[in-house]
Inverse folding.
């Protein structure tokens, strides 16, 4: 049975791998940022030394939001002052406890969180580089293993028993904890997923190597009900997911697709594709941004050519002005139309950028232009999950790659067209 590309429930599956190779760690900011962010989210005491009296007109939610904003601003200044001091990297237990406090504090907020508040919560969850902490813990475990020689084990049985009774936190568990906390923050019903929030979430999950939730969050970006606060109660308004303004930015879509490919998760890659390049919102946005101006020029071209033909008719005296205008207009219009048609065919049928996925014969030119980003994404997926050697293209086996081949064929595309392979054209 063929595998389905994406299911709504796939966002809640267990996480698999750890890829954290893109982030430059900043260990000297760890303790300061964790303390301020978690204290502002999970406690009722502000991080500033002096407190201003609360005005009677200010609501409790507004006061908590201002406290969160002040704490976020003070964290940057305090971290710059402590950059010269050497700070110990927190262990995995501290990171887990801090993430729990941040999540609980964010969920306890009664109103609609602002974009800045949501971004601050996501950035607070991702302040510490888990990879560096994991490497440090691995070095400590190697040193401890070297010290546990047979002689020392015989002389200190009580110490070994106490070590065996301790609960060990694995780095993979901490990565899962941070990823789940970010997912809980973004999917909170009162949170509005703005383009900046989506970009920050994709960056965080890419750093952690957990792209499994990206398809669901990309779908929520377009279809999540919009919260509104009326008379102290929050109501939710349904939105149209096919609007052009709901289209995911191409840079964010590329980052999400690269994260799924790096994690070797084809289901997540296809899910990202379905919710970005294949969505109606993305296609409508492309029509507005790239086709509106050329369509306006094409519509106005006959009018401009008729004006030019009228001026050309005035510089001759062989025919009457009406006949000369008509002849000039037909001639210029045929020349411009023929030249533009040749240029459009040459632009829409070029295949130099294609590697493995090409268009099937007979596919309309308008379809090729409209779905070019989707074809390029499928081409990237096929090159990532297939053989890297060019002479082995088409030799892939297995249920997953066979399903990918059929999926591409349903999109009016061909994977490894024989007539376009090296030596066959």
């Amino acid at each position: 049975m063929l595998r389905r590309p994406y299911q709504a429930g796939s966002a809640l599956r267990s996480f698999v791998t750890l890829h954290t190779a893109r982030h430059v760690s900043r260990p000297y900011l760890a303790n300061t940022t964790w303390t301020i962010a978690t204290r502002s989210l999970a406690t009722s005491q502000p991080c500033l030394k002096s407190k201003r009296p609360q005005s009677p007109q200010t609501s409790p939610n507004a006061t908590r939001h201002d406290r969160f904003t002040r704490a976020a601003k003070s964290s940057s200044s305090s971290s710059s002052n402590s950059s010269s001091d050497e700070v110990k990297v927190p262990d995995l237990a501290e990171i887990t406890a801090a993430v729990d406090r941040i999540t609980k504090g964010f969920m306890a907020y009664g109103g609609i969180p602002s974009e800045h508040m949501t971004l601050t919560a996501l950035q607070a969850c991702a302040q510490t580089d888990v990879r560096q902490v994991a490497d440090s813990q691995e070095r400590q475990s190697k040193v401890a293993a070297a010290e546990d020689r047979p002689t020392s084990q015989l002389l200190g049985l009580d110490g070994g028993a106490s070590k065996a009774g301790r609960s060990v936190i694995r780095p993979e568990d901490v990565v899962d904890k941070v990823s789940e906390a970010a997912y809980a923050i973004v999917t909170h019903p009162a949170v509005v997923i703005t383009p900046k929030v989506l970009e920050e979430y994709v960056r965080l999950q890419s750093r952690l190597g957990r792209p499994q939730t990206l398809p669901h969050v990309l779908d929520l970006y377009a279809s999540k009900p919009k919260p509104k606060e009326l008379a102290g109660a929050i109501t939710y308004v349904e939105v149209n997911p096919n609007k052009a303004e709901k289209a995911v930015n191409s840079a964010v879509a590329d980052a999400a697709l690269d994260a799924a490919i790096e994690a070797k998760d084809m289901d997540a890659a296809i899910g990202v594709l379905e919710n970005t390049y294949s969505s109606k919102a993305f296609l409508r946005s492309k029509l507005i941004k790239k086709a509106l101006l050329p369509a306006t020029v094409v519509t106005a071209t006959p009018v401009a050519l008729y004006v030019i033909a009228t001026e050309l008719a005035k510089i001759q005296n062989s025919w009457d002005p009406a006949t000369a205008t008509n002849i000039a207009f037909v001639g210029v219009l045929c020349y411009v139309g023929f030249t533009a048609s040749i240029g459009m065919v040459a632009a829409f049928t070029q295949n130099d950028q294609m590697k493995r996925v090409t268009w099937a014969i007979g596919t309309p030119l308008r379809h090729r232009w409209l779905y070019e980003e989707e074809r390029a994404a499928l081409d990237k997926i096929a090159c990532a999950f297939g053989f890297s050697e060019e002479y082995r293209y088409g030799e892939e086996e297995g249920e997953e790659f066979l399903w990918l081949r059929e999926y591409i064929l349903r999109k009016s595309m061909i994977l490894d067209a024989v007539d376009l392979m090296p030596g066959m054209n």
The CA atoms of residues 197 and 332 lie 52 Å apart. Confidence is low (pLDDT under 50) at residues 1-58, 71-87, 151-165. The beta strands are 226-230, 233-237, 357-359, 413-415.
